[in-house]
Specification:
Rossmann fold; seven-stranded parallel β-sheet; single chain; alpha/beta; about 15% strand; about 250 residues
Length: about 250
């Protein structure tokens, strides 16, 4: 198995892309901390994964909660190798002046500040262990080819992309690889917010028409990329922004 002996923290892992990543990691032999604001959902996923997984609740926009996620990995499994910063949110697709300050603050706290807090928590551990590691930030095609109506959300993903590349440069000497996966829109809990309309076949078709392969992303698409970026087989890969987008950004 590709991740045998590894330990990962995956945030936002109670549903959507995060759940897909957690399941794929466990299937490849990894031990997983299933972290999510929705503790009940995290417990459901961890329970289905068996003794390879434990659950923890928490808000990634808060430093003590991120520290608790890292501590959970150490307490349950004794080490940490992989951190997937997947938890994210958005404001509804709407005109730029209609986004409130509270919406703006929340989307930056969850999508950007969370990476700051998780880095504060995990980096000392990865350095102390002395064997490197893999940090994977789940970004978005919005940070490469933004859609109108999502300006402030797009900005958070642009920040994630630059942070990823800068971290990769700074941490390479520690053999800590930092990469980003940039999914195109998927059928997750945030879909109606991204579209700014009701989730109907007609509205989906309008967005799918912008994706050359002709479908939205699925959790398995993102999970496959996340397995590869955590796999020792990608040990020379750092600082990339990997579009998993069916050709959207080509």
């Amino acid at each position: 198995m590709r991740l045998e002996g590894k330990v990962a923290v995956v945030t936002g892992a109670a549903s959507g892309f995060g759940e897909g990543i957690a399941r794929a990691y466990a299937a490849e032999g990894c031990k997983v901390v299933v972290a999510d604001l929705n503790l009940e959902g995290a417990r459901r996923v961890a329970g289905e994964l068996g003794n390879r997984a434990v659950a923890i609740g928490g808000d990634v926009s808060k430093g003590p909660d991120c520290q608790a996620m890292v501590d959970r990995a150490l307490d349950a499994f004794g080490s940490l190798d992989i951190v997937v910063n997947n938890a994210g949110t958005t404001h509804r697709n709407k005109p730029i002046l209609e986004v409130t300050e509270a919406e703006f603050d929340r989307v930056y706290a969850v999508n950007v500040k969370s990476i700051y807090w998780m880095t504060q928590a995990c980096l000392p551990v990865l350095r102390r262990q002395g064997r490197g590691g893999s940090i994977i930030n789940i970004s978005s095609t919005a940070g490469i080819r933004p859609r109108p109506g999502l300006t402030w959300y797009n900005g958070t993903k642009g920040a994630v992309n630059v942070i990823t590349q800068s971290m990769a440069q700074e941490l390479a000497k520690d053999n800590i690889r930092v990469n980003a996966i940039c999914p195109v829109m998927g059928a997750t809990a945030l879909l109606t917010e991204f579209m700014g309309t009701e989730d109907t076949p007609e509205n989906r078709a309008r967005f799918i028409a912008t994706i050359p392969i002709g479908r939205m992303s699925q959790p398995s698409d993102i999970a496959n990329a996340a397995v590869w970026l955590a796999d020792p087989a990608s040990s020379f890969i750092t600082g990339i922004l990997l579009p998993v987008d069916g050709g959207r950004t080509a």
